[in-house]
Amino acid sequence: MTACNQKQVSKDAEGPEARIIRTETPVRPEGQKDVLNLATPKLDTVRVGFVGLGMRGPGAVYRWSNIPGTKIVALCDIEPDRVAKAQEILVKAGRPKAAEYSGSEDAYKQMCERDDIDVIYIVTDWIHHVPIALYAMEHGKHAAIEVPAATSLQECWDLVNMAEKTQLHCIMMENCVYDFFELTTLNMAQQGLFGEILHVEGSYLHNLSEFWPEYWHDWRLAFNSQHRGDVYPTHGFGPICQLLNIHRGDRLKTLVAMDTKAVSGPYWEKKNNNVDMPDFKNGDHTMTMLTTENGKTILLEHDVMNPQPYSRMYKLNGTMGFASKYPIEQYCVKPEQLDSSEIKDFKNLTQHEALPENVKQQLMEKYKNPVVKDIEAKAKEIGGHGGMDYIEDYRLVYCLRNGLPLDMDVYDLAEWCCVGELGAISIENGNAPVEVPDFTRGLWNKLNGFHHAFAE
Questions:
Q1: What is the pLDDT of residues 394-447, one digit of tens each?
Q2: How many other CB atoms sit within 10 Å of the CB of residue 252?
Q3: Any bridge partners for residue 122, and if so which?
């Protein structure tokens, strides 16, 4: 069922462990070492080449053209007209034109083989992410990959192994960890406002009916038709994994998933492509539940088929407080957690009601994350999902220019992406619990907590 030698515990096993489906963790190849807290030599100028200039690629080109200390060296897409449109973005920004690569699916290889590029930024359809990233790292380039960076356990391990072998950065460009509410809440959590965090929730609930025809050759709907499980987990999963310090003192342990039947998926195949698909694999709504080594719980949900307000859920429950982003941004904390000298009107608060709006705003100002210091206004001006895309790209450039560990590493990538195939295994085995591999291979508590790196 999976390339990672999934095997079930012997029927002779006893107790709750008897039903867990095991996933084998391959031994780290000889001569390979981990890339935890990896820092590479400082780059005075970060030279980038972009692959994929369809829906999201042009936005990345625009953002990078507004980040100091960068040089856009090359542009690549299978469609030449997309490259030409991206060139117009550079010209308008007063940047030199970039080298062009197009016309075939492997045009990116020539770009990766250049010796004047530091980062290959990959914004293609999902199934091309890993081949391009592997080729980039094989040729000495850091890989920055749009979400989801990988779609199977084998791809996750391939990226982990290549990053460890080459000692290069392989980062998934998960923009939602840079949302202003998520960044502020993370800072609150790191400073103990919520006490011990026990439970978190994340999701991707976004009706895509208006967008299906915009995907090149309808690739995204096709992927859903062929794969089961949470195939797009990282927007909701990434921010909550940072709250729980995953592979920085805690690790994902066990997963259980379930889904509804597929109703809207086959409908859209028939409506858009005139194809009858009674065996459409992905259920309309998928739920995935996980436990961690330290006894925390996680709930993920995925639904891109049916009408509903957009939501990434983003919720945490702690011993001293609560936070939630959707449908409205809310906090609830024990009153003794608030500093009366800094927070006005904190009296008469309860532990079963959201903080009043004025108290919430004071709290958010007090705990504004240092990551957005000095760049918040610029991020909102340049934009990209309200500015979080700009912060994401700015942080990558900042860390590379200062020789710092990146905010996300290849283990984050693997942990956040693996739940798709693991969920499918659970669903297809009667919602059985499935073991989540330790992609750090035993080093999940080597680091002490999640932290952003700064040069100061």
A1: 999 999 999 999 999 999 999 999 999 999 999 999 999 999 999 999 999 999
A2: 27
A3: 51, 145
